[in-house]
Specification:
Strand order of the largest sheet: 6-7-8-9-11-10
CATH class: Alpha Beta
Largest sheet: 6 strands, mixed
Order of helices and strands: EEEHEHEHEEHEHEEEEEEE
Number of strands: 15
Radius of gyration: 18 Å
CATH architecture: 4-Layer Sandwich
Shape: globular
Distance between the termini: 15 Å
Helix content: 10-25%
CATH superfamily: Metallo-dependent phosphatases
Number of domains: 1
CATH topology: Purple Acid Phosphatase, chain A, domain 2
Length: 279
């Protein structure tokens, strides 16, 4: 039974699902293998158990990663399509609409074919509204690169979009982290022009939060009136303290955001252990 909600709404941010049809994520160190399909199914089950339920979900990029199964060659769209199709099947269990972003592991052509039905090379930046709030989804995917980048055309579009929605509280989403976390190795793979992006967003007071993925850990950074929130992965995580690459076998996690007028509240749910979901 769902409890009545007096006001406001909720959404969830799921990111770095890394679905790879036909295999498991094997850590480079060889210490463990991880079933990203099973972990995402657990996260979907947890989202279904939320009370009140979310109005929508944002999928924050690095959605499919068959490239992690075959690191010796460059994979094409046909190699990616089964993983995106599996992802779509899993996400069909969510109780709400979905808004997608792309990340560095994604293949834009296959992503557009399976999940968007748009032209193969179409960029994935756009905005949408919900109950008086404005949301901006950005595209930091740079083919062949681990780091991210927003080209001048996208930044120009962003400025126009924000100027047209000055009266609406706004939250932005991007895959890569724009500000450094203080972890040397992962900070080499942030948005290359992240400072320009955050300066742009900071020039519009209605923008309160920027929510990102990519880093497989949760962290918050505030500068002035702008807060960046990093959401951990629905599968493997990265060390929050190591200055060298260190991959951890979970636990799966996702972010819940509650919006009530000007008030924003968020938490990260980690799914420890196995078996029934107990939130």
């Amino acid at each position: 039974m769902t409890s009545p909600r007096k006001s406001g709404f909720r959404f969830v941010h799921l990111t770095d699902t890394h679905i790879m049809a036909g295999g498991r994520w094997r850590a480079r160190t060889g210490e463990f293998e991880f079933d990203t399909e099973a972990s995402l199914r657990r996260v979907v089950e947890a989202v279904r158990a939320l009370d009140p339920p979310p109005a929508f979900a944002v999928l924050g990029g690095d959605l499919a990663s068959p490239d992690l199964l075959d690191r010796e060659r460059m994979l094409g769209p046909d190699d990616y399509e089964p993983s995106y199709q599996l992802l779509a099947d899993i996400l069909a269990g969510l109780p709400c609409p979905i808004h997608f972003l792309v990340g560095n592991h994604d293949n834009r052509v296959a992503f557009n074919r399976v999940l968007r039905g748009s032209t193969p090379d179409a960029a994935c930046y756009y905005s949408f509204d919900h109950e008086g709030h404005h949301f901006v989804a950005l595209d930091s995917h740079e083919p062949g690169q681990a780091a991210g980048y927003l080209d001048p055309a996208q930044l120009a579009w962003l400025r126009r979009d924000l100027a047209d929605h000055r009266a609406r509280p706004t939250i932005a989403f991007v895959h890569h982290h724009p500000w450094p976390l203080g972890l040397a190795w992962i900070d080499t793979m942030r948005v290359r022009n992240g400072d320009e992006l955050m300066t742009t967003l900071g020039g519009y007071p209605q923008v309160r939060w920027v929510i990102c993925g990519h880093v497989h850990l949760d962290q918050s950074i505030q500068r002035g009136g702008l807060t960046m929130l990093a959401t951990p992965s629905t599968c493997v995580q990265l060390s929050k303290v190591s200055q060298e690459p260190k991959t951890l076998p979970g636990p799966p996690a996702f972010r819940v955001v509650d919006v009530d007028g000007e008030a924003l509240s968020t938490r990260v749910l980690h799914l420890h252990g196995a078996g029934d979901i107990n939130l």
